[in-house]
Amino acid sequence: MKSDLRSVIMDLDKVLRSTYKIFRKFDEDRSGTLEHNEVLTLLKACNIEVSEQECTECLKGIDSNGDGVWDFTEFMTFLGMIYSVKLSGAAQKEENDTKKAQKPDVPKRKESLVP
Ligand SMILES: [Ca+2]
């Protein structure tokens, strides 16, 4: 149990380090935070097409301390939201696939069952 926890912490450490490297790549001016234009670039990199206004709203929605930019913690919040959306999409697809698999293959009849 203790070694499992230690293993998870070590894995988490690796994930956080690589995530921080990604955060730094988007922090083009090395300010330590992501400003509007950097968030816009990030959203585009995630294939999320938004207008300037939508980007502002997204930035504000995750900007928990209200300083107008995203710090690393807020960036992690964004990633968590992206991951959550991805998981719910995968769950929905799995549910749809299950429904399709369970649906009986009944051929449509054109003729009436009543003679
Ligand atoms: Ca920045």
Q: Mind explaining what this structure looks like?
A:
Helix 2 packs across helix 3. The chain has 115 residues and is mainly alpha-helical. It has a domain of 79 residues: EF-hand (Recoverin, domain 1), CATH 1.10.238. The protein is built from 4 helices and no strands. The N and C termini lie far apart (70 Å). Bound molecules: calcium ion (CA).
Q: What key phrases describe this protein's structure?
A:
115 residues, Recoverin, domain 1, mainly alpha, 67% helix
List the helices and strands and how they pair.
Blueprint: H1 2-26, H2 36-45, H3 52-62, H4 72-102
Helix pairs in contact: 2-3
This protein binds calcium ion.
Residues 27, 29, 31, 33-35, 38 line the site of calcium ion.
User: What is the C-level CATH assignment of the domain at 2-80?
Assistant: Mainly Alpha
Overall geometry comes to flat
List all distinct small molecules, including ions and cofactors, that are bound in this structure: calcium ion
Residues in helix, %: 55-70%
Q: Count all strands and give the number.
A: 0
Oligomer state equals: single chain
Q: Any guess at the CATH architecture of the domain at 2-80?
A: Orthogonal Bundle
**Quick check: average pLDDT?**
90
* Parts with pLDDT < 50 across at least 5 consecutive residues: none
Number of helical segments?
4
Major sheet size, sense and barrel closure? none
Q: H/E element string? A: HHHH
- According to CATH, the homologous superfamily of the domain at 2-80 is EF-hand
Global structural class = mainly alpha
Give the CA-CA distance, first to last residue.
Answer: 70 Å
- The CATH topology of the domain at 2-80 turns out to be Recoverin, domain 1
